[in-house]
Amino acid sequence: MMNNEYNDWLKTKEAEARKKQEQFMDRIAGKLKRSRLREAPEHPFRGAPMYWRELEWSLEERLARFEDNFTAAGGHVARPADLEAAKTYIMAKAQALGARYILRQDDPTLAELGLDEALAATGAKVSVWNGHRSEAWIARAAEADFGIVTADHAVAYTGSLVVQSAAEKGRSVSLLPTTLFAIVPVERLITRLGEVLQTFDAAGREALPAGIHFISGPSRSADIENDLTIGVHGPGIVFALLVG
Amino acid sequence: MSSVKERADLALNNDFLRKAVRFTTERLRDGKRKAADDHGNWEEWRERGRQIRLHTIAHLDYYLDRFAEQARANGAHVHFASTGAEAVQIALEVAARKEAHTVVKSKSMVSEELHINRALEEAGVEAVETDLGEYIIQLAGEAPSHIIIPAIHKNRYQIAQLLSREAGEELPPETSVLAGFVRRKLRAKFLEADIGMTGCNFAIAETGSIVLFENEGNARMVSTVPKTQITFMGMERIIPSWSDLEVMATLLPRSATGQKLTVYMSGITGPRRTADGDGPEEMHIIILDNGRSEQLGDPEFQELLNCIRCGACLNACPVYRHIGGHAYGGTYSGPIGAVLTPALNKNVAEWDDIASASSLCGACYEACPVKIPLHDMLVYLRRRKVEQGYGNKLETAGMKGFAAVTSNSKRFHRALKAGRVLQRVVVRNGEISARIGPLKGWNRYRVAPSLANQPFRERWDTLQHELRASVAQTVTGAAAQERMKAALHKRAARPIDRKEGHSYDE
User: Where is the 4Fe-4S ferredoxin-type domain (chain B) (predicted)?
Assistant: First the structure.
């Protein structure tokens, strides 16, 4: 069977690679004029400078800074008081922009929004991402006018949304649609990048999802004569809704 | 192959290129300066970045091995390639096994080193660059001329022409129209491609993750949509942990474009999980040496491996700003390219004279977020070239002659005397403009001053008397006067050794 042949080939390649890997490591150690290092070395300079780790802003300051940074990068920020207000906001935008295809992640916060019925009532087609093989998910995402996600974190200092992939949270939802909406429950808004990054160290390899994406505004390019273009591949319009 | 000088002449005669490169690099440089100032304590962060990179490279066998094992545990297939040719071979094998028709690529300097596009095309596989700038220069059949802004040398009319050819219709030279065309065109390519190829900004040893920084979203596309992902990675791209990524994420975007963070920073840990609805089903990571390990254990060049490819040294370099990237003639341009290109190539005979195209001002070192002393390395390269007998023969002879004359005071002063007499033939208004002998190169763009009729040394005794007499009058303030007097006293007390070669009289 073709598949078996392919797997055999992969195994051959892995055996080759492991042999080569040993050569690589031996060469490195040889060049560094010492024996191979098998244990983790002490790393006294790990992470950001000490003073930086003490920085923590109040919620009000985090909100204000996030808004400044995200807006400066060309994104839009709104601060609806609750999910109901967020829903109203998205509905208004859907009407204003004439959104017909909408794709959202499948998570409890977004389900609670109750957007699906409201949007369907306007004639829009709403899809909810899940891992079902039957659906051509990437095609759904590519045709979508709106992609709606809940951010796992947001970072005030850099003005970034953080989205992590999962079966019910496709990477395409925050990438392929023309417009991206990210719901950010305010308690998920932290000060520094390092606060999020260190959770990945703490969680360890096995706990990490395949894709972790920091998104700091609309897709952009200045490759043509330094002239800023928005939405060159990813979403050109990005809304961060800080809820709460 | 053309010489650095020929390529530079070509660039200097291209008015648009010079203006565009200058405008862009200055904008990036100013942006970096502002971003660094806004962030604050920049020197501390630079030092931190340097220490993390030094530590990682000094323990590279541990960290690289750890990365490979963790990446495999994530389900990725890891390959090691000693040379560019080996890396290409592995990628072509994967493409053949997958019966790939189309490969979409995000920006990767390593893949530029490999000339993978050409290899794929020869194997009948379409390779499409998807970074807007890379796509433009791919259509033009050129190489990137800046690490961060690859099409820095193209204007919108040239770009409109290239894209119109692709579109089969006339596109106006308007950025939004051109970018819109590329979005539609490449969107279709992303969806039909069999393989996505990426580079790797950082690889995290502890979790086997790769990290990509980008603004357009094309790197996310190529690592999300196609079923197979191939990532090319220089063996030195490693950092130990996600915590260390905070330092790199602070230094890299600010140094490259002045951004607080690029629009997208993606950490990819293995292929898609079983239940995931997107992401590659299969992921190959090809780790490349290609001359990098040659720097290890070399006290003069090991720090070269600390480079995080931000391009700040290009933007700071007065030479790069004038001649642009193509004049460097290699994959990497600017100060980092001037050092990296020869350093990656063990064969000194193949080095061209790009290391000489620098004024050694040190602006590159000042700009470098991990403090690589590139200007020192340029000197080491020049020395190695000369030591191995690949210097300019005339220059070597000239230097020997110069040493013979100047290491002996009698010979030196005789030569000066002779010079003062002989120069009368060529001096006009105190300047020598004739392009003769050793002045040929210098006088091409400027004139040399003539030797003074009365040398400083002959005037010194008189000057010293005048100085003593004037100290009391010109130096005000008692403390300052005391200091000056003490200094003069000290100088007078020191016996002048007339044999040291600093005296003038024969």
Answer: 297-328
Q: Give the number of domains in chain B.
A: 3
- Rounded alpha-carbon distances, angstroms, from residue B43 to B46, B255, B335, B369, B371: 5, 13, 21, 9, 10
In-domain check, residue B409:
yes
Instruction: Give the span between the Cα atoms of A143 and A128, in whole angstroms.
Output: 14
Helix (H, G, I), strand (E, B) or coil at B200: coil
B277: exposed, middle or buried (C-beta count within 10 Å: 0-12, 13-18, 19+)? buried
Q: Say what the pLDDT of residue B5 is.
A: 83
Residue numbers in A near B27 (CB within 8 A)? 226
| Chain A residues touching B294 at Cβ < 8 A | 31
CB B136 within 8 A of CB B161: no
Q: Are A99 and A93 in contact (CB under 8 A)?
A: yes
Out of B225, B260, B270, name the one closest to residue A138 (CB). B225
Which chain A residues are within 8 Å of B221, Cβ to Cβ? 175, 233-234
- Residue B221 pLDDT > 60: yes
Query: Could you tell me which chain B residue has the CA closest to the CA of A42?
Result: B55
Whether B403 and B290 map to the same domain: the answer is no
B137, B143 Cβ separation under 8 angstroms: yes
Q: Is A128 on the interface with B (CB under 8 A)?
A: no
What domains appear along chain A, each with residue ranges and CATH number? 1-41 (no CATH), 57-243 (3.40.50.10420)
Lowest mean pLDDT among A67-81, A130-144, B103-117: A130-144
ipTM confidence score = 0.97
Q: Chain B contact for A214, CB < 8 A? A: yes
Residue range of the domain that includes B142: 61-294
Instruction: Identify all chain A residues contacting B22, using CB atoms and an 8 Å cutoff.
Output: none
Where residue B246 sits, what CATH number does that domain have? Answer: 3.40.50.10420
Final residue belonging to a domain, choices B294, B323, B338: B294
The one-letter amino acid at B84: G
> Which band of pLDDT confidence, cut at 50, 70 and 90, is reported for residue B453?
confident
Task: Evaluate if residue B3 carries a pLDDT over 90.
Answer: no
Considering the domain architecture, whether residues B208 and B275 belong to the same structural domain is answered as: yes
Q: Please give the mean pLDDT across all residues of chain B.
A: 91
Nearest CA in chain A to B81: A20
In a domain, B482, yes or no: yes
Q: Same domain for B115 and B222? A: yes
The count of CB pairs under 8 A between chains A and B is 293
pLDDT single digits (tens) B318-355: 999 988 998 898 889 999 999 999 999 888 888 878 88
Q: Are residues B161 and B256 in the same domain?
A: yes
Give the end of a domain, one of B294, B329, B355.
Answer: B294
Q: What is the mean pLDDT of residues B362-366?
A: 96
